[in-house]
Prior knowledge:
single chain
Amino acid sequence: MEARSITAEVPMVPRMPEDPAALVPELAEVSAALFRVTGNGSVPRSTISLVQLRAGQLVGSTYLTVLHTGFLRKAGEPEERITSVASWPDSPYFTGAERAALALADAVFRPSAAGERVSDELYAQAAGHYEPKALATLMFAIGQVGFFIPVALIAKPVPGRSFTDPWK
């Protein structure tokens, strides 16, 4: 496969011309269930969006990064918090709970040369900030974005288009 020049413009059309959700309508039920799970109120929506933005950054998906940045802006998050997600470990803009959530996302989406990605220590830190239901919800929020990463990377929807229809 030939690599694209870094100076080449990226076309504003999806790689996969058909909407995968239209091709596989059963996805709607799964997607709706995932949104209900992550929206159960046990974890602030802003934390979920921060974690999902971080996941988009880690996997190199412009679509997911733009999508979750947009969600955070729409929710009124300050630009300093949104832009410093990429460098969250040394950013002063996050609470201890948010830092634990971002550390979990980093652990899940980054390979670890030391072995296990989510260490017992990291789990204990996160559990210190989240009740069991909230920790499970956070885990499913990380899984939710993980579920959609192949769509973002393979089908490559157009960044910045409506969340409900990035194929138009």
